[in-house]
Amino acid sequence: MKSNRFSWVSLALPGACLLHATASGQSADLSTLDELLVTGSPTDRTLFEQAQPANLLSGSKLMLNLESTLGETLRDEPGISSTAFGPGASRPVIRGLGEDRVRILQNGTSVLDVSNVSPDHAVASNPLTARSVEVVRGPATLLYGPNTLGGVVNVIDGRIPDQPFTGSRPTGSFSSRFGSVDNLEQYAGELDYGQGDFAFHLDAFSTQTDNLKIPGFARSARARALDPLPPGETEAYGILPNSATESRGAALGGTWFHEGGYIGLSFSGEDSLYGTVAEPDVTIDLRQRRWDLRGAFDQPATWIREIDYRLSYSDYQHTEFEGIEPGTEFLIEGFQGRVELLHEKLGPFEGAIGMEAGTNDFSALGDEAFLPPVQNQAVGLFLFEEVPLGDLRFQFGARYDHHDHETDASAAFGPSMKRDFDAFSTSTGLVWEPADGYAVALSAAYTRRPPTYVELFANGPHVATGTFEIGDPFLGTEDALSFDLSLRKNTGRVTGSASVFHYRFDDYINLAPTGTDFVDPEDGGLIPIYHYTPVAASFTGGEIEATFHLLETPSEAKDAKSPVSVSQRLDLSLQADYVHAENRSTGDPLPRIPPFRSGVALEYGRDALTFRIDGQYAAHQDRHAPGELPTDSYFLVNAALSYQLDLGDVTTTFFLKGTNLTDEEARLSTSFLKEVAPLGGRGVVAGIRAEF
């Protein structure tokens, strides 16, 4: 896929996001429970100390998991799947919940795109620029709003430096990678520099792929049997049609550090062109330009530890081309701001109060638009407090949100409509450390989620999903009660965590088939009609991950006469997750729920060399909603080899990764395209990363 649209980033630097490894070449991710997480709590707790289960991808783990989309980058993490709408668009699904129930942030504020409107819309935050990706599983309602019932994904990219630059020369990283399964060609890089009270950041990336190679037919055996092609047409085999992608982007940021704080500004842009896979001749041309302002005041008063503020502006548009002819155009322009005040200890209380507000204008223009133009506004106020009680830490808080949606009058959708929603949510958590290295965490939350403008006002054929969607402008809030219990261990020969959860929904807004069809006036074809309907629902499940440290021989300092010691380690990792989701009134399964999954990995490290082999199993999913087909089980085998070389101030990592080595056919039950788009076949990715 070629395009001349990207001249504005012609100075893109080859390289990679800044990723970290230990001096011995071993992965810095072996004890992830001890890593600091900024998303889950304003008091900056580690994964071990969080009241809710969380994931953190950084360093070599992020490097080896990195894919072109955020959903695929996170897909193998416990409790996380993806929408997998072809190689160009993939959004995370957490514990079976997706769309507006998983909020995607970029440095703590909304990505301000339309990826929650339709699964064929890409997330406008490319993981290539990420320094880390944080995922909080379960409701993070207090800090980030009621549309976080599934969880929060926060992409942290460092585009606004928050610490003064202390070096004498620029630092940064450069890398490239090449892949066989889709002819991947990828470059990315970043530079950081500063003098005195100023610090600056520059990053850029470029990715291009051809159509994805697949093991066998694009359409599943069930789809081919139920709906054979007309005589003369040939089934796609070996190649997933219309799956090529191309994307480029760049960002420039700077920060001024003043007495008592800092203020920084960044400008970024991304252009992407990708095939939708659902239709053989439809491509999406995406463009986003974004400004971010961030700053903080340190200790502005004796009782205030810090005031942190952020403001983002985004101008996003994408056009869906049918061949060379432009079709439907999606536009969203808006602001999103956030202020947090962290106070010093007031008696036993330590925490924060804050406010979040945003406004955006959305419109879909064209013959296939299934939504009217909508103006959206949201304001939230929250309080979060933590109280230490010996071996216990007690967390609690509350949040109030007001959402406002107003449509424009139009010939296609009728007169203007307006809906206002007030939502109050509260949660509490308890973290108990009964012994060194052990923690038990219990959290409970009551959440009221206002419906989205899609759930309220949709009315038309949605080509990407092959349905005619009808919203309900009289929907009320979606109320949920959730519980989460976790056990963690971060020391000894065995480390890891296990969690169980239960969500009970009243008026869960479900897109359900009506049993009737819409007749397409152009070709007379039938499109099944789906309606957004509130139902009683429950989600129950759990995740477990454990690492057995079979061999640990750390390097030791020796004198000149002593032999050089060798650092070695051998780790066996196991993980599994499961979610059972159903309509409580009928007992029917809810749509697009992941099956039971498990994984095993063996990783060996010797000084600068690391080797890893892993297997990922997904069970047969026969619990499917009406209108869906079952999904077969699969087992994927992957392997990776990396070597770190230190030359002066430059650390270079070479890596080779093999994916789906047995060329297994794998389809995700969470994808609308599972019957027409399997995952990629056997492939190899080779890459190099240099940090200086």
The CATH topology is Maltoporin, Chain A
Number of strands: 33
Approximate strand percentage? over 45%
Give the termini distance in whole angstroms: 33 Å
Mean pLDDT: 90
Integer count of domains: 1
Radius of gyration: 25 Å
Number of helices: 5
The CATH architecture is Beta Barrel
Which class of secondary structure composition applies to the elements? mainly beta
Share of helix, binned:
under 10%
The major sheet is characterized as: 22 strands, antiparallel, barrel
Walk me through the topology.
Blueprint: E1 54-58, H1 59-65, H2 70-74, E2 80-82, E3 92-94, E4 102-106, E5 109-110, E6 132-137, H3 141-144, E7 151-156, E8 171-179, E9 184-195, E10 198-209, E11 213-217, H4 221-226, E12 237-239, E13 245-258, E14 261-275, E15 282-301, E16 304-322, E17 325-346, E18 349-365, E19 374-389, E20 392-407, E21 418-432, E22 438-449, H5 453-457, E23 459-462, E24 467-470, E25 478-489, E26 494-519, E27 526-553, E28 568-583, E29 597-606, E30 609-618, E31 634-647, E32 650-659, E33 683-691
Parallel strand pairs: 4-7, 24-27
Antiparallel strand pairs: 1-6, 2-3, 4-5, 6-7, 8-9, 8-33, 9-10, 10-13, 11-12, 13-14, 14-15, 15-16, 16-17, 17-18, 18-19, 19-20, 20-21, 21-22, 22-25, 23-24, 25-26, 26-27, 27-28, 28-29, 29-30, 30-31, 31-32, 32-33
